[in-house]
Amino acid sequence: MKLNKLFPLIIAILALMTSCVDEAIVTLLDEIQVSSSYVSIPVDGGTDTITVTAQDSWTIEKVVTEKDSVKWLSISTMSGEAGETELIFSAESTLDGRTAEVLILSGGKTQRINIIQGLAVVATATCAEVIAGPDSKTYQVTGVCTAITSTTYGNWYLEDETGSVYIYGTLDAKGAAKNFLSLGLEVGDEVTVKGPKTTYGSTIELVDVEVIEIKKSLIKVDSVKNEVLPLEGGEFTAYLTCKGEGVSVEIPEDAKSWLSISSIQSEGTNAVVKFKAEANAAGDRGTTLKFNTKVDSKNYSTETSLTQKGAILEVSIADFLAAEVGNIQYRLTGVITEIVSDKYGNLNIKDFSGEAYVYGLKDFEAKGLKVGDIITIVGKRAAYKESPQVGGAVLESSISVTVATIAEILTKEDSSDDYFMVTAEIKEITSDKYGNMYLKDGDSEILMYGCYPGYGASGDDRYNLVTDKGLKVGDTLTVIGTKGSYKGTNQLTNGFYFSHVSAE
Questions:
Q1: Cα distances (angstroms) measured from residue 413 to each of 371, 375, 419, 495
Q2: If phi over 0 gives left and psi between -120 and 50 gives alpha, with beta otherwise, what is residue 182?
Q3: Fold type of domain 25-117
Q4: Which pLDDT tens digit goes with each residue over 282-314?
Q5: What's the whole-model pTM score?
Q6: How many CB atoms neighbour CB 211 within 10 A?
Q7: Cystine design at 498: which of 64, 91, 446, 478 (Cβ 3.0–4.6 Å)?
């Protein structure tokens, strides 16, 4: 055979082999097969159809994340039975290309379908144009980094003269995630990024962006002195390098009542800015200072933060929950009602006024704490997705509470220091207001002389537990208190409510 006839034959065989390989990929699963693993929808809107052949019933899931719900894609049916079924995919017109993925689940196997509508294009835009534009579109934007919220994932704010967008995830120079620090990006740098837009709640984001260019800011904070100021106040100093036309300083409005500029000194490219902080009679406080300079009418900025120690505010849990998220330190005392994680020290504590979630109590495992123990912690008012929690909690003190029967308590000496948790039946209620009642456990009984709604109750907050909780004779009540006596009669004293189970 001549070579000029052999080469076309070889090419044809290779093409056939490639075709067979592609088909094998599509129909690889015995449980469920599709006529095509790709669906292409015109950019002007329309449909595309594939055939599903399944040995059992099946369901469809759009590949979704909390960032993109793929609402633009419609599917003729989301489930089917064994046999052949036509699936019709449709979408309205779009200005720009977009993609999605669909999973067909059957017999414990998953078949993936890639959806393409038009061709994805990168649009150079301002922040305002990103905000006004459609989700899933890829944009290239240039702006200044104004704040960094996560150096692990690379979450930060990019701002230009038209607005600001949130960058949720930044890839490194090799396209890898969670390597943000390798980029050397700092607040004040001018950055050009490229990535798809999404809307998360009310936040406009560019997700997993590629960094095209970083231009370092012409102003930079080299070092600071007295980054943490004492309660009585003092002087904070920032040392800067500035290659622009002078230095201006911005103090946030909420810090102007206690922080002021003492002096600004410049020599060449070096600048020193000094601040005076007043004495602090409240809790911990802090602020972020912004330094600006200009070159040819273009603004450059950098920032630094300072904190000032304050008094620790001792509050009820209800008052803590009502406080704003911030750096103020609060002292809370309550009973551990639930331990969510021994490893991380995540737990719930409760006092007479309410219950709070503690996200991480330092060195929890080593402390041997348990449900029912009374603890005093210091932490900040934090939140996760608008749910309040105690952040950065540190244990100050604890009171171990021993689970005991009434019979066991009756053998104890009177003591206001030893607390017991008792679960017993309410035999008689002698005072709704004060919570005086007789408790019965097997053949043993004891008078509970006063039962408060929770730990720490005082004044009028001590009263009316029975009415407020709807307690009645026959209910099973769990309380915490100390062993006492009055004229030879054994009592539970200093007692407070933990939980109850209605007899009904």
A1: 24, 24, 12, 16
A2: alpha
A3: Immunoglobulin-like (2.60.40)
A4: 888 999 999 999 888 778 889 899 999 998 999
A5: 0.53
A6: 19
A7: 478
